[in-house]
Amino acid sequence: PSPLPVSPPPAACWGHLSSFLTPMSVSTEEFVVIGPSDPIVAMLGGDITLPCRVSPAMNVENMELRWFRSKFSEAVFIYQNQQEQREEQLAQYTGRTSLVKDFLIQGEAAVRIHNVQAFDNGLYTCFFRKGSFYEEASLELRVAGVGSGPQVHIQGPEEDGVRVVCMASGWFPKPQVQWRALSGEKFLTFSETHAQDPEGLFSVEAALVVRDSSSGNVTCSVLNPILGQKKGMAIFIPEPFFPQTSPWKPAFLVILTVLTLLLLGAAFYIKREHTTKCREMQEWEKLHREKEEDQQTKKEALKGRGKSPQISDLLFTFVKCGFLVDWRKEKFQSAHPRLAVYDENTSVTWKDMTEGMEEETCSVLGHDGITSGCCYWEVEIRNGGKSDWVLGVCRGDVERKGWYVELPKKGFWVVGKYDDKFCALLETEVSLGKVPHRVGVFLDLKEGDVSFYNMADGSHMFSFSLASSSGTLFPYFRLKPGDVSLTICSVLEGCFPGILPVL
């Protein structure tokens, strides 16, 4: 016989319930109790029925009926004196159990568990007592749940190959991981670690070192061993990612030649565009000099009257590798008066250290929104261990006034220093070790993720998966009062990333 279905059977099916039950104990006195011979499978979050019956069939309405775990006192459900008794019921089952009474007069009884949880997995005993005579039977409940799809990313070169990491969460029981190449061949050697959250659900992280550059696409699949259901994700590993000692050096040289030709063509196009941008830059510099001269005149006038000049129209130009923003077409927002900007508008720090302002914060955004493709920038953190700071990306429509929480579900994908800890903010904080001095941020909207790297050694720190409805994203920075500063560094020649302060 096959296991009972996951959802409770309708009343019309109870007449056939006996075909799923076999005796688990025998008595020569008044009756025996019969339970299911095969395990019952239940889905996380669903309902499930645990049935038992007596033989020979008799009315059990006036019997004591009890379902319990490993001990008689660990009651899941108790029926006595024709009503439910809750005094001995385990707290985990309070409000989640009920008795199916449709066939009590025929000797069949079942307890229904609602909103199945990982804790419910395991062995149960159903107990029937009439007067001083009692019998019991055992049955097994197997809980199963399919979690998130795996997220796969390249972590970097290792030995003579490339290290690829696969992560998934929310599975029960412990899932199985499989790696396959494009040809369908299984990778048999890889490392795998599991962890359980407070609700008992499993997360898995599996790392594979791919040494054959001809593997092409590599697929990570996560399988539920009870349901046989799996989810997978493939990632393509370009050959240039492999160490130069690869035995496929001739093929690499061919690809390198093609890439060189493509780069030469791109360089010609960029040079032509650069000429146009230079003319625009010259006009911008001319207008900027005129603006600085006007501001200097205002400063001197204010200084003569004993007043400090008010900083206004403060702009950090954000340029994405060859695309220069025409600042004359933008509407600028004023900088917060407590922010100090210096080093040709590439660094920002907190300047107003008035007593009582320790809990104040001020956030700033990148000037241009990012809607497609890939972007990369680096941020240098000075005195990063002396005060709280945050950097990453956020949606353009997030709420940043007053008190707010920087979580992915709120539109923030960030890392930073919080209360002497360097971590990534999720529903639960993820510790990232020591505070870095320089952080690289790689935003890939095509693949839907943002990754952070410690540029001291090029190691990967953390990656977020972006929601499909993330919309326009902006570089995001936040400072708390203290002796700390953030500087956006030029990565490529002609690339001047920057930020636009916002109140």
TrEMBL record:
The chain crosses the membrane at residues 251-270. GO terms for biological process: regulation of cytokine production; T cell receptor signaling pathway. Residues 286-305 are annotated as: Disordered. Residues 23-140, 150-224 form the Ig-like domain. It is a single-pass type I membrane protein. Pfam families: C2-set_3, SPRY, V-set. One of its GO terms (molecular function) is signaling receptor binding. One of its GO terms (cellular component) is external side of plasma membrane. SMART domains: IG, IGv, SPRY. It comes from the Eukaryota. The keyword Membrane applies. CDD domains: IgV_MOG_like (cd05713). SUPFAM superfamilies: Concanavalin A-like lectins/glucanases (SSF49899), Immunoglobulin (SSF48726). Residues 286-303 have a biased composition (Basic and acidic residues). It is found in: Membrane. Keywords: Immunoglobulin domain, Membrane, Signal, Transmembrane, Transmembrane helix. Residues 307-495 form the B30.2/SPRY domain. Belongs to the immunoglobulin superfamily. BTN/MOG family. PANTHER family: BUTYROPHILIN (PTHR24100), BUTYROPHILIN, SUBFAMILY 3, MEMBER A3-RELATED (PTHR24100:SF64). This is Butyrophilin subfamily 1 member A1. It comes from Ursus americanus.
